[in-house]
Amino acid sequence: MKYLIRNLLFTFFLINVTACKTVAYKTYKLFPEAENTPEHNFDINLSGNTPNYSEIDYWVEHPKKEKHYASLPKNYLDSLDKENPNIDAFFIHPTLYLKGNSWNADINDKKLNKEIGNAAIKNQASVFLGIANIYAPHYRQMHIQSYYDLKNGLQAFEVAYSDVKNAFIYYWENFNKGNKFIIAGHSQGTNHAERLLKEIILKNDSMRSLLLVSYLPGMPIKQFHKDLPPCSSPNQLDCFLSWRSLAEGYFPADWEVSDSIFCVNPISWKIDSLPSQKKNHLGILFQNHKIHYPNSIEAYTDKGVVWIKPIKIPFARFYKMKNYHIADYNLYWINIRSNLRYRLKENGYN
Length: 350
Fold this sequence. Notes:
Strand content: 5-15%
Radius of gyration: 19 Å
Low-confidence stretches: 1-30
Shape: globular
Oligomer: single chain
Number of strands: 11
Helix content: 10-25%
Largest sheet: 6 strands, mixed
Distance between the termini: 39 Å
Order of helices and strands: HEEHEHEHHEEEEEEEH
């Protein structure tokens, strides 16, 4: 379990690099400030109430909610959208709890919950909109400082995962109704998704038979079950997809280098090291919720990460970064969506 926390070194989701806003929503520093660390050690009694997933308010996105954060980009039309898809997507959002005196987020924090919707759901989970029914639970996510304080962080991780597990079981028993489904997450959400797959879904024959594909970006994922291989071709199902985005030539000194860490190129959807072509990149999702600059990214996989060649678009110097973790979905939003449609079509799901 410790490796899950140790490898979460770049887990901030949406940040502004400068006043020139790109795929970001707020100004966060890449490394958390020490003064934001909770003053006390982990105490389960301070973790708040366990969410009741029979109540719609404990879902940040759900087909039956009146207000939906998931929406398609303003300048993107999809004539194939379905109002009532027969496929589901269970999405686990990344860490957005950066300040607070508890090791787990307050499940009833309205400001934080709204931020989760406007960031993670609008920019990440929205990629499944119209293809799948999106079920995304609120959960008592662990504090950002949990990634650096293992003594308290591991206990906070257990609380967060217990909520995710309870939410999925409630979804399965009350909402699934025999639908094929997708598991997806990012960052902290990816680690919860990996554990959920390993401990619950892949041990249950009924669940496993309905699982289509798993999206596990933002974390170093190795094959963790013999029946869930990494996806190695653009039309494969019954597999997992994972990637981490870095600027070409950059690799954090404390990251593990291992051939067993699987990484797909989210433009070519292959796991070889050949560079994807710019003509196959379909655009970047920006803060204004519009797609801009298709044909701007060329990438290849190496050392278990996606290396992105210099992005040559207007004002690129303002949002250049070494670690593109914050934009693992935004950089390839249409590529992810288009490829999912292709995978489904090639396997008889229309």
